[in-house]
Amino acid sequence: MSKKIKTESVDYLFEAILSLQSKEECYTFFEDICTVNELLSLSQRFEVAKMLREERTYLEIAEKTGASTATISRVNRSLNYGNDGYDMVFERIEKK
């Protein structure tokens, strides 16, 4: 866990997120807390990560998601050298 983001405010935000009980509640909360562009950027990164795990090429990913190669590269770096957060979530989604 990164000490850079570990703050009381971030803890409080995560508690709020963990309290959400449905996809509809997520839409309601995230539409209030994020701009449309912020939410679309987050979802784009998540889609990029999924496609990278599927071993798709940067070109395929860029064409499908509209993500820049810089964004794809940053997500790839997180997948390879990050805290394994993407992998944890993808494994849980796959089990459902």
From TrEMBL:
Sequence intervals crossing the membrane: none
One Pfam family it belongs to: Trp_repressor
Source organism of this protein record: Ohessyouella blattaphilus
Name of this protein: YerC/YecD family TrpR-related protein
UniProt-listed PANTHER family: LMO1763 PROTEIN (PTHR40080), TRPR-LIKE PROTEIN YERC_YECD (PTHR40080:SF1)
